[in-house]
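[scheduler] slot 2 assigned
[scheduler] job type: sequence-to-structure, two independent chains
[scheduler] chain ordering preserved from manifest
[runner] begin chain α
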Amino acid sequence: MKHLLKKRIILPIVACAICFSTTAFKNDFFEIAKQIEIFTTLFKELNMNYVDETNPGDLMDTAIKSMLNDLDPYTRFMNEQDVEAARINNTGDYTGIGARVKTKKDKLIIVEPYKDYPADKAGLKAGDEIIKVGDILVSEYKEDGFNILKGESGTSINVTFKRNNETKTTTIKRAEVEIKAVPHFSMVNKETGYIVLSKFNRKASSETSYALRDLKAQGAKKVILDLRGNPGGLLSEAVNVVNLFVPKGQLVVTTKSKVKKYNRSYFTKKDPIDTEIPVVVLINGRSASASEIVSGTLQDLDRAVIVGSRSFGKGLVQRPKRLTYGTQVKITISRYYTPSGRCIQSLDYWNRNEKGEAVRVKQENYNEFKTKNGRKVFDGGGVFPDVNFDKTKNTTITKAIINSDLIFDYATAYYYKNTVKDINTFKLGDVDFRDFKNYLNKNNFSFTTNTEKALQKAYETSKKEQLDDDIETNYKTLIDGLNASKNKAIDNHKNYILKQLTEEIVKRYTYREGLYQYYKTHDDYIKKSTEILNNPKTYVDYLR
């Protein structure tokens, strides 16, 4: 037993030590070796002598994650399941039921079935609660419930699920699933093509290239590239997407690191598809990383008009390093810079506030850079669009509503109660908003603000200190006022909430593909983009 435990402890430590570059850490090697020896000794003594039974794997997992939490959220340890998830994300291929699934308490929730894939063919819909897979009850399955849905292509599983308070069964035949980087492309009008690029996996540039060529063949003389909500992915694919619109040999992005071998400049390597076609790129606060390389570079080169709201601001590059037993560590190795020289990283993880939170780079500390045509652009806060839409702040109240899953659940209930004859004319109004607020009340929606937490703490302290009795009355008055403010805050975010509800409901009737079709006639970003592209002078003026 002792021999096995010793082996489990030492092997990962040795593997970590090997990962260190001797050139990068030469001066600190003694200190690293010293700390590893201290940790190894402590870990062994703890597991051998602690009064209760310990789980070395859980302790090590906690230790590693706690250590990495002091760095940035992108440097993280990946177990075998994480490595497989990353592979699927990068390749877009896996074997399964073809649906987004969420683990929730004792059941699995179908979040979104992919059209014409196994789950969809078996009749499963968003909102279905899987309670049994084969003979296995999800509530009794100790590991991640999603694992019991996995299996080889061609194999079948029987699932029991709840829908609208009814229990149903179906059989799903697993198959190869391809997650598209470009889930949709089509013509907005006779001359304007629309391409949605949702992630930068290994197929991103090839699928974008195919979409662009197809749209040009249909008569597209202008293009809208939608990167909203795109979290990024492979840097090389970002370079290749830029290459579709700019000449061969153009600098796209530069990475800088303390390890010299990671300092690189990435240039376009292929002949472009079209260097003249007018392009509008859509971004928002969830456009990050590779999305920001594409939008920031096209902006720096004055090759596209950027429309939307400020992007996320992730200017860091990660690289996975293999460890033992199929695990990896993904390490932030460098910062990236667009052609103008700016790094758009917005959060400073190395200078935190008193709460230990990364602070946002202050606007007065932004540095000015120039695009190819001499336009002013800035670093430190994401990519600022040329045409700015007011960013809807994801406040405490909106976060609480979304995290409660009540928008998702309301859309499910709406779908089974209502028939929509023409989704293109679908629109929620005041009556629906009032109905949703009633739905929140019926489902006991509540959340505690930081203000309430502070007041509660102060109130409890006052009782211990036996202060004036009026404090309790004043406390209740303040809480009542806060509750009224929370109700008012929901009303203040009416448009945002209705937009989230609309998108979720439209997907229920038409899948995600139908949502993109709906966007083309209802989305303000696309309307504005079309307006800009329809006026050549306006388009050129933005780039001067």
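[runner] end chain α
[runner] begin chain β
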Amino acid sequence: MKKLVLFLVGLFAFTSLQAQWVDDPATNTFIANCGNNDGEVYLSTNTNTGDTYVQWEGSASNGWSPTLQRLNYEGVPQWGDDGIHIGGHEFSSMSEGVAMTTTTDGCVVSCFATYDAFTYAVKIDPDGNFVWGEQGLQLFGGLGFSHTELTAGDDGGFWALGFDYSNLYLQYVDADGTLGPTTTISDSGGYKCMFGQLTLSIDNNVLLTYEKVGSGFYTDKELYVVAVTPEGGIISPDQLLMSSQTFQSTYIHKAIADGMGGGYAYIWHPGIGGAFNTYVFHFNEIGFSTINDQNGISVHSTDPMNNYGYAYGAVDPVSHDLIVAYEQTDASTQSQSRLYVNRITATGERIWGEGILLADYVGVSYADIMVDAFEDGSGFSVIYTKSSPSNSYFTTVEAMGVDMNGNQLWAKTLCSNVYRRTVCDNTPGFIMGQNIVTWVNCIDGGIYGQNIGPDGTMGPIEPVLTCFPPENLEGDYIFDMDEQMFGVKLSWTAPETLPLHYNLYRYSEIYKDEVIIEVEADATTYFDESGIGAYTYQLTAVYDNCESDFALTPEGENHVKIEVTGIEENTDSRIVDVLSVYNMTGQRIMVNDMNELNTGVYILQGLTEDGRLVCQKVIIDKK
């Protein structure tokens, strides 16, 4: 791996002197002032810088409204003790549901519905400036006045979702604030389309999972998924994930991206057999289900004596399995609480059977369960609160690390102070070697937090730089007819995080030299005017602070070797073994027989009788 380390060593030596994360669970790290009744705390960490944005809701002069704080990697608040309050709008006295996400250009976006029944998005840069003004942008053309959801795109923009208790409204917003078209999801059969969740797919498309809901508190529900492009195009018709079940309308689903372009959805309900359980579904990049059972896969065998719910899931970055933690309670009194975890594949296999018991019943209850995968795929952490034996409303914050075989690695108390608290609705996940949990102190006010590393370390943690490499590197020798030159056409799949640029390394077997070619970040192909010779190519992705490993080929090699021999259009060296066929634009044509080719001009690459690799132009005329 090629690392740019000299600058980073100096940087971390400086910032470590200001480190604010503590390793004492009795004190924890102060994040911001707030009211003791504030809540709805959301976190999102920038994958490039490690900065974490915290948003919470509280009562203010303009209603129940959001405030944001920025923490750097070391846990130092950047926007004062009070954060930045969004005061440019009037809000209701109750929550309409506020969303928040970081964008790949380093900013944070807050999205919310206001008192006048419109939805707005406000963008704040790391210095605390309102990029689009404090009013922000009005979304959905004035529609969608209730709960919002956000997910960041791969180009600095973001997807936004709103609804009005009958219809869903989906829109992509570019990094500069340009609004894409609004896509409306509705049902003509009398059902309400509600409670949407967003997961980013390939090519900046989004997968929207949503519920079709009947009327009443107990109602019929179905779960659907649809794939949408930033231009508002529907990739495929809505696909049914969960067949109709009858249960309380307040039990809503969650969704999470699977790292392959698709995603998982899971929901808690008693619709099957009258016993509460959590059911998992999986869909691919165009929204097709990969689990045959439209009832989903339960996280635990259904048991009328017990409930299995309050689940929270994360996806392992290597196997792409869903790691889901959940609470078991007895069905009769819900007084016995146990904490379990299970692992479920994209095809619906429940790998750990009846789950792995993480915390047994000891006279207390477990809540606020969150699970996050380690970045290297070696395991995951489960963060949760544990009630006091004397007062069920007073809790501590606990965490444990588990490997991918289900073995406990460590157990930590993150906050040993027992008091009433409101814990964040999500954790941002492990990024650059640490994860973060926050909460509101409901006794004295104030938001506090704690970091944790994959080895259980609390307090100052040296950042682990994750440099995602490109994938699926391939190369072919082709002749460019437009330019009348021969060379090498290389292609690859972009990494999970877009780099600053790529470095393409070319080594010549003839001249014994290495050339480094800088390729633009948005490219996934490159034509190299190599000249005649034998070449070895390797490709890396370059980020702000590191350079990735070499890209692997589909066969697992970290290089491709290409021999360029030149083109022979009029030659007595007849090709006896055709290896590749290209059209005049250099695109490879997949054929099994030359007779399959349509009328046109083609370039054949193949071997002559004496074993030489040559290219020849052929004209196919079927008139």
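[runner] end chain β
[qc] chain β: The longest strand covers residues 408-419.
[scheduler] slot 2 released
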